[in-house]
Design a protein that fits this description.
23% of the residues lie in helices and 33% in strands. The chain is an alpha+beta fold. A hairpin with a 2-residue loop joins strand 5 (97-104) and strand 6 (107-108).
């Protein structure tokens, strides 16, 4: 018995040592760690365009562009973009790419800005490959007080040497800087080294004196002259003079060397607010159920067609997942050939009535979005939280291929028995 117990303990210890000393590369997507309501009821990314090329060398540039809508049913626990500033950026596992340019609705947006709930915005992010490796790159909207809300991502492979990366710039005075990453690096290292030498010298001075216990006894006995000697005061005064001299001298030296400077900018960019797109197709979620064992979302919709043409439902998108109706050619054509397959449900979208919705018609229909992606993307957590609500976008198409967007959302009920037998 003791032998078996010792063997078991030895195996456990070996496993722990291996887990600590032999870490494996982590390839999981960071967005899967976010709560489902963050991905379903905040930023609805759509029309995302990725470059055809996925292999780059260091210093190559590429871009991601598309559109997003700020969902009307924005979670109450999050700061609202209309009240706090937001910022468009890219999400990568570390500084793997450098952001070169950023545009919102065609306007350059290098700083934070304010956006409105319920409106649609175009974006375009230009990046430069920086670090060799295989990286997952996402567009991301950062909301002050709420964090980053990521869009769909693509895998890119960067080859070359990280030391070859260059970020050139031209200053206001016309000086050409070859690489911002190494600009004045020697001066920065020299100043840091100087202050480290002073700090170490100051510590060594006191380390050489009586330490904790002797000094504690001196405090108890109120032996202040022994605790801090006249020599200690002189050394401290000398260090104070040296510090002030270095700070003041360094300041005047830099002012003389760089007379034209501007402080770091903290202002906000004002983006022209677009008009809210009023869709002629009105959709309302009457009931939504998630069948847990079957990884299936069933939504009962009430759809009213207020346009003058028949339309069909072509796609349901939520949390970067796309459920496309294969019987609507215009919807299938919106899925680019290079779009990441992780975000496309192979089983597509099923409708209880897929016939065209005529002008002026109001129809109650059920859509079924079933795929393992619900579990793979960890979205089944939406039935475990205190606010079981979902959100998404519906894309309707007419015979001419024109598209109409409608936001949808509401409470969702978990089910553990098939709908037909419940």
């Amino acid at each position: 018995m003791k032998t078996k117990l010792c063997s078991l303990l030895t195996a456990i210890m070996a496993f722990v040592v291996m887990a600590v000393t032999l870490p494996q590369a982590v390839l999981a997507h960071g967005e899967r760690q976010q709560e489902p309501f963050l991905r379903m009821r905040t930023v609805q990314w759509y029309d995302t365009k990725f470059p055809d090329q996925r292999d780059f060398n260091v210093n190559d540039t590429f871009e991601i562009s598309g559109k997003f809508r700020l969902h009307e049913d924005w979670p109450q626990v999050l700061e609202r973009p209309g009240d706090v500033p937001v910022f468009i950026n890219v999400a990568t596992p570390g500084p793997k790419v450098a952001r070169e340019e950023l545009y919102i609705n065609g306007q350059s947006a290098p700083h934070s800005t304010f956006l409105d709930i319920g409106k649609d915005y175009d974006y375009r992010v230009v990046m430069k490959a920086r670090t060799p490796g295989r990286h997952h790159v996402h567009p991301m909207l950062s909301v002050q007080g709420s964090g980053g809300l990521v869009g769909p991502g693509m895998w890119v492979t960067v080859s070359g040497d990280a030391a070859d990366f260059r970020a050139p710039a031209v200053t206001m005075t016309g000086e050409e800087i070859e690489n911002l990453e190494t600009y004045n690096l020697g001066t920065v290292v020299a100043w840091h080294g100087l202050w480290m030498v002073i700090a170490v010298a100051w510590l060594l001075w006191w380390v050489g004196r009586p330490l904790l216990i002797p000094r504690f006894i001196m405090v108890q006995n109120q032996e202040w002259d022994r605790l801090i000697t006249p020599l200690d005061r002189k050394v401290g005064a000398g260090l104070l003079v040296l510090t002030l001299g270095l700070v003041g001298g360094g300041y005047f030296w830099y002012v003389a060397k760089y007379p034209v400077t501007i402080p770091l900018q903290g202002g906000k960019i004002l983006i022209e607010s677009p008009a809210k797109v009023e869709s002629p197709i009105r959709a309302f979620s009457e009931r939504a159920e998630y069948y847990v064992p079957g990884r299936t979302l069933n939504i009962t919709l009430k759809v009213t067609n207020e346009s003058d043409v028949p339309v069909r439902l072509g796609e349901f998108a939520t949390a970067n997942l796309r459920f496309v109706n294969p019987d609507v050619p215009a919807a299938v054509e919106t899925v680019a050939a290079n779009y990441p397959t992780d975000y496309i449900a192979p089983t597509g979208l099923e409708l209880s009535d897929d016939s065209p919705i005529q002008p002026g018609e109001t129809r109650v229909m059920t859509i079924t979005a079933s795929d393992v992606a619900w579990e793979r993307e960890r979205l089944i957590g939406l039935v475990e939280g205190p606010d079981n609500s979902y959100g998404g976008l519906l894309f309707f198409f007419d015979d001419a291929g024109d598209r109409y967007l409608s936001s949808i959302g509401g409470p969702i009920l978990p089910k553990f028995v098939p709908p037909e037998t419940s």
